[in-house]
Amino acid sequence: MELDNTVKRLKNFSEYLVHVASCHVCGSEQRTEWAKADPIIAYQCDACGLVYHNLQLNRKGRDLFYASGYFELENDQEDAAAREKMYVIEIKNLERFCRAGKILDVGCGGGFLLNKFGPAWEKYGVEFDEKAARHARTVFKLNVKQGEANEHAYPPNFFDVIVLRGVVEHMADPKAMLTHLVPCVKPGGLIYITSTPNAESLCAELYREKWRLFTADHQLHFTKRTLVELFKGIGCALLDSSYFYTETPYAHELEDYRKIIEDAKRISTGLKNEVDSSPAFYGSMLSLIFQRSADLPS
């Protein structure tokens, strides 16, 4: 089955949608409308730049939304092959800085990325969806817990790396979640944020509600600046940043350039309704590696 992940699908969960009055990162209530797609409005925080949806699903709504087919594991062959290639790219990027140790994959899904890490890694995972967590445990024999990451206690200074691949944009309270996780990383250890939509990318700025990453499940849209400030406040500094595109299986450079140029012309002349969703393009996805300091903020 193919999941309809457009924002309009949230209408099916209207009784579980709640208003959000302030920024999830800095708490500011000063904001500017960024995009609109029924039933939500996206605002950009005037203080830190986070783009967030209002309305958002409450916990019960998220449970029902993700249980309604979101985590279907039967990917078509083309999609599965593309993801496999991305896992290799992302692991290679991380292993420039750390090649072995204890690793926790937060939001590990069915365990596909975690399973790609080699035998030098001691692998742990946590996954919101019960079906996906069970797949990781039974098919890949991985040590995966089911639930939210902050519902589980891990020893302090335990992990060498924590990976959040395509995860922070889904979180209800990213600051609280990351504050819970960072002390579990050893001093000098790494937190790897990857495959995360970038709200200050060309496609995000141009397409807004027609940006291909403006979806029902992505209730937050970060920028590099926002994430750097967020991690700075919880005792981590930026070590590396990457914007994968040309090396990915999703890049069709000439086609993508041409589409963006033509769409920009339409949008500038008031014909946005004639524009389809954005293509994959450079900058649309962030991959950031943060390093934990020896001392955490009290």
Number of helices: 8
Write the CATH architecture name.
3-Layer(aba) Sandwich
Secondary structure class reads: alpha/beta
How many extended strands? 13
What Rg do the Cα atoms give? 19 Å
Helix content: 25-40%
CATH superfamily: Vaccinia Virus protein VP39
> In angstroms, what separates the terminal alpha carbons?
47 Å
CATH class: Alpha Beta
Shape: globular
Q: Report low-confidence residues grouped into runs of 5 or more.
A: none
What is the percentage of strand-forming residues?
A: 25-35%
CATH fold name, please?
Rossmann fold
Side by side, the strands of the main sheet go 8-7-6-9-10-13-12
Description:
- The chain has one domain (77-292): Rossmann fold (3-Layer(aba) Sandwich), CATH 3.40.50.150.
- 28% of the residues lie in helices and 25% in strands.
- A seven-stranded mixed sheet has the order 8-7-6-9-10-13-12, with helices on both faces. Strands 2-3-4-11 form a four-stranded antiparallel sheet, with no helix packed on it.
- The chain contains eight helices and 13 strands.
- Helix 3 (112-116) links the parallel strand 6 and strand 7 (121-127).
- It is globular, with a radius of gyration of 19 Å.
- The longest helix has 18 residues, at 77-94.
- The mean pLDDT is 94.
- It has 298 residues and is α/β, with parallel strands linked by helices.
